[in-house]
What we know:
Elements: H1 9-12, H2 17-32, E1 39-41, E2 48-52, E3 55-65, H3 77-93, E4 98-108, H4 114-129, E5 134-142, E6 147-155, E7 170-174, H5 179-188, H6 195-202, H7 210-216, E8 221-224, H8 229-240, E9 243-246, H9 255-263, H10 269-275, E10 282-286, E11 297-303, E12 307-310
Parallel strand pairs: 4-5, 9-12
Antiparallel strand pairs: 1-2, 2-3, 3-6, 4-6, 7-10, 7-11, 8-10, 9-11
Amino acid sequence: MFASLHCDNENVTAKTLAELGEFGLISLVQESLGSSDYVLIGSGDDAAHIATADGTYLVSTDLLIEGQHFRRDWSSANDIGRKAIAVNLSDINAMGGVATALTVGLAAPGDLEVAWLRELLAGMVAECDKVGAHIVGGDVSAADHVILSITTMGDAERPVPRSGAQPGDVVAVVGELGMAGAGLGALSRGFRSPKAAVDRQRVPEPPYAAGPVASAAGATSLIDVSDGLIADLGHIAKASNVAIDVSSAAFEIPDAVQTVASALGGMDPLGFVLTGAEDYALVGTFGSTEAVPEGWRPIGRVQTGTGVTVDGQPYENAAGFEHWR
């Protein structure tokens, strides 16, 4: 539907989605959208910031597809329900906000057991309860596989976009890194351990309280680590027109990540930390070391230039997760 609309030189030669890629598609959509006085922060961040007659709100949507984002032979229905909600709540958290309401779209095959659906819903409600949010509606349809589309709304006193990082800012992170990627590596090869890593792949644990705390501390930019740390820092760098360098010495490698890396043929465990997807930690930038909130770990600095480096050098295989690639 966007083929006849304007797109930039990077996207104009692509003939298929595989050639365009996930981020190329996002850019194409962004270029095709108009502006509105009601849209304070639009497409390109973890959530949009919308003005209303009596205030503002945040809104974000995530789509989860069976076989792409979860597998029923790997995860219980409760786990899938919790994960579906967690990745959505994380987007609001990554804007410095708190989620308040969600709508859920569910498509599923007719032979799906009702008991499985009850467990799915129980997991969704349990995850919502962690932040005091509520599911307020949605829609259902038939499909060959389970598909979940969730829209989350929330509030923030000071929404933090990706575009505010400045040279000299401190880069800091809160939450686990590498565990979900290591868990995926284990599950993909038929392993069900180490349990700590496998559990994080099945159900992430975003640091829900950290987003509002970072906002109150004056964070200049925020993003959740969904595609991989370097990839997501790349989104901040691009949106802010800056470069970011992180120090490998700043990272502690969890025991479970080291175990998986060894079991998979001696892989570098730092690779899981820097490029593993679906951790849903928060990474952001702050004006000084003193501004970094308690519990956050400084890992680097914002610089002039472009791109993301590790110890001053490009990191091999730093692309992170991208659909169609």
